[in-house]
Amino acid sequence: MPRVLMSINAAWNVVNFRAALVRALSGEDGHQVIAAVPDDGALDKVAALGARPVALAMTSGSTSIFGDLALFWRYLRLMRRERPDIYLGWTIKPNTYGSLAARLCGVPRINNISGLGTAFIRTGWLTRIASALYRLGLGGSSTVFFQNADDAALFRRLGLVRQSQIVLLPGSGIDLAHYDPTRFPPRAPDGEFRFLLIARLIRDKGVHEFVAAARLLRARHPHLRWQLLGFLDVDNRTAIDRATLDGWVAEELVEYLGAAEDVRGHIAAADCIVLPSYREGLSRVLLEAAAMERPAIASDVPGCRDVVCDGETGLLCQVQDAASLAEAMTRMAALPEAARAAMGRAARVQAGARFSEGAVIAAYRTAIAQALGR
Questions:
Q1: Domains plus CATH for the chain?
Q2: Tens digit of pLDDT for each residue in 294-353?
Q3: pLDDT of residue 237
C-alpha cells in the first residue's frame, strides 16, 4: 500500500480545495495518505477526509533565513520518519523546502504550482530567491502541475522546469453537485445590487481597487452595494490590516461579512462576484461563482481570464485599475436581469465542461502511477 505524503501551507486548504483528491487516494485507491500541514484548527477535518494529519509548523509569509532553514530541517526529519513512497506539494514552501528534502531522501515528487504569489507579481530580490528555490525543489520532479499556461511558460522560460515535467491541470476542479444554485432560494427583490469579493484580504487580490471603485461609484449609484468576505490579518506581506478595513466600513464603502467555511449562501445572495486579482493560478472563487450561476468581473490576468469569458460568462477589467473596474461594474449592473442570468448559466456549463473535479483526480492518478513506475 503506497504511502503518499502531501504538504500544503494550511490545513483548511486541504479541506476546502483538496478534499475530493484525498478521499479518492485514501478511500478509493487505498493509499496511506499523510498530510503535513500547519495546525490552523482544521486537523480534525483533514483526518475526517481519510488522511493522517501531521502538524508541521510553517510561516508562509516569512522570509527569515533561519526560519526557513528550520522548516527545511523539519521536512528532512519528516521524510526520514514517515518514509513516504511519493511526495505531493502545493504552495511555495512545500514546493521548495519540502520537495528539496524529498529529493535528498530519494522520494519521487509531484508538485502543483497553484499560483505564483507576491514573489512573482512584484519582481525583485524575492523573485530571484524564489526562482532559485524552485529550481532546486522542482529539479527531478516527476510531474509539475500548472493551473494555467502562462505560469507554465514563465517557469519554462526561467529554466525552473523542463517541458517534459509540465502538465496543465484545471485548477482544483469543481463539484457541480455541491455547488448547485437550485438548493438556495433566490433573494427577495430589494432594489439593491450586490458586488461580492471573496478572498483572503490581501492587496494582491485587488481589494484596494475594489474599495476605490466603490468610492468612485457610490454617490452616483446609491443602489449598489460592495461586500467583502474572507480571512483578515492573514500571514502575507500584503495583508489588509483591521484598522484599514474598519475605516472602509465606517466610511460605508464596503460591508465586511467576515470569513465563512461554506461560501455558497453568500454567492447565492450576490448579484455578481468580483475578483480584481493581480494574478491567480486558476481562481477557485471564480469556479465557485460559475458553478453557482453567478456572472463575474475579474482582472484580465492569468488564472482569471482562463475562467471568465468576457461578454459571455462575465466581464474582464484592467488589472490594478479602479476606473476600469468601476466601468465594468457599471456595465454589469446596467444589464437586464435576463442577460445576467444567461451569463450565469453559460458559466455553469463551462465549469462542468472544462473544470471538473474528476479530471483533476484522474490527472493525479496518472502522475502517481508514472512516478511509482506502474
A1: 3-173+356-371 (3.40.50.2000), 181-354 (3.40.50.2000)
A2: 999 999 999 999 999 999 999 999 999 999 999 999 999 999 999 999 999 999 999 999
A3: 76
> Nine-digit cell at 302?
492569468
Q: How many residues does the chain have?
A: 374
* Residue 126 or residue 88, greater confidence: 88
Long-range contacts of 16-22, Cβ-Cβ distance < 8 Å, separation of 24 or more: 16/261, 16/284, 17/172, 17/284, 18/90, 18/172, 19/49, 20/173, 20/175, 20/357, 20/360, 20/361, 21/172, 21/360, 21/361, 21/364, 22/46, 22/49, 22/50, 22/51
HEC secondary structure over the chain: CCEEEEECCCHHHHHHHCHHHHHHHHHHCCCEEEEEECCCCCHHHHHHHCCEEEECCCCCCCCCHHHHHHHHHHHHHHHHHHCCCEEEEECHHHHHHHHHHHHHCCCCEEEEECCCCHHHHCCCHHHHHHHHHHHHHHCCCCEEEECCHHHHHHHHHCCCCCHHHEEECCCCCECCCCCCHHHCCCCCCCCCEEEEEECCCEHHHCHHHHHHHHHHHCCCCCCEEEEEECCCCCCCCCECCHHHHHHHHHCCCCEECCCCCCCHHHHHHCCEEEECCCCCCCCHHHHHHHHCCCCEEEECCCCCCCCCCECCCEEEECCCCHHHHHHHHHHHHHCCHHHHHHHHHHHHHHHHHHCEHHHHHHHHHHHHHHHCCC
The answer, yes or no, to whether residue 233 has pLDDT greater than 90, is no
pTM of the complete model? 0.90
Cα distance between residue 89 and residue 35, in whole Å: 10
Report the percentage of the chain scoring pLDDT > 70.
Answer: 95
Q: Which of 78-92, 118-132, 155-169 has the lowest mean pLDDT?
A: 118-132
